[in-house]
Design goal:
The complex is a heterodimer. Chain A is mainly β. Chain A is about 0% helix and about 50% strand. Chain B is built from no helices and 11 strands. In chain B, the strands form 2 sheets. In chain B, strands 2, 4, 5, 6, 9, 10 and 11 form a 7-stranded mixed β-sheet that branches. In chain B, a hairpin with a 2-residue loop joins strand 7 and strand 8 (about 70-75). Classes of the chains: A mainly beta, B mainly beta.
Chain lengths: ~120, ~110
């Protein structure tokens, strides 16, 4: 059974870079047609899609975050990562790694059928 | 960007009753809608995709309907574990994929 596990620092200072890793077990992140992504949830609030990466390395980002976000893959360790630069307190959230599903096979359209447990990242000095 | 709205914000029901949750898209999304359940302290769980297709392992008491801009999630005979927050998400027009603000189902 495929599992996702987030890891990284729980506290980041304002203006610095948030870096998280998602370790995937039970599946290969380079499997043909698969996507991998990140969604976040500020405390007590709703869900926000951050971005996704296709098995080929193509990336899709939320326009509201695009200038600050990078998602990349490390196939040798079966991991993918999130990097968010110039963070502010508004970036405080639980960050979930996810496995999106594309119902149209390569279109980029995505819903999210598997989720990690999430990691709370606080931005504070 | 497609804006998703959900109503009501909170729905109070008793165990064994039926709950009906609504989700509306700011423009037509055909049937490109997913529903998620989130229990306290847990990640979201996919319930429904394609507006009406139950995800693997989801009980039959959960059903989805709708197309275009209006969608409904129905939970029949509510169980204690169904008291949670429910989110809808569109995947028709992106980026970004957008979620509704959620409906809390409580006792």
């Amino acid at each position: 059974q495929m599992q996702l596990q987030e890891s990284g620092p729980g506290l980041v200072k304002p203006s610095e870079t948030l870096s998280l890793i998602c370790t995937v077990s039970g599946d290969s992140i380079s499997r043909l047609g698969d996507y991998w992504g990140w969604v976040r949830q500020p405390p007590g609030k709703g869900l926000e899609w951050i971005g996704s990466i296709f098995y080929s390395g193509s990336t899709y980002y939320n326009p509201s975050l695009k200038s600050r976000v990078t998602i990349s893959m490390d196939t040798s360790n079966n991991q993918f990562s999130l990097r968010l630069t110039s963070v502010t307190t508004a970036d405080t959230a639980v960050y979930y790694c996810t496995r999106p599903r594309d119902p149209y096979y390569g279109s980029g359209s995505q819903y999210f059928d598997s989720w990690g447990q999430g990691i709370l990242v606080a931005v504070s000095s | 960007e497609i804006v998703m709205t959900q109503s009501p914000a909170t729905l109070s029901v008793s165990p064994g009753e039926r709950a009906t949750l609504s989700c509306r898209a700011s423009q037509s999304i055909n049937n490109n809608l997913a529903w998620y359940q989130q229990r306290p302290g847990q990640p979201p769980r996919l319930l429904i995709h394609g507006a009406s297709t139950r995800a693997t392992g989801i009980p039959a008491r959960f059903s989805g309907s709708g197309s275009g801009t209006e969608f409904t999630l129905t939970i029949n005979s509510l169980q204690s574990e169904d008291f949670a927050v429910y989110y809808c998400q569109q995947y028709y027009n992106w980026p970004p994929f957008t979620f509704g603000p959620g409906t809390k189902v409580d006792i």
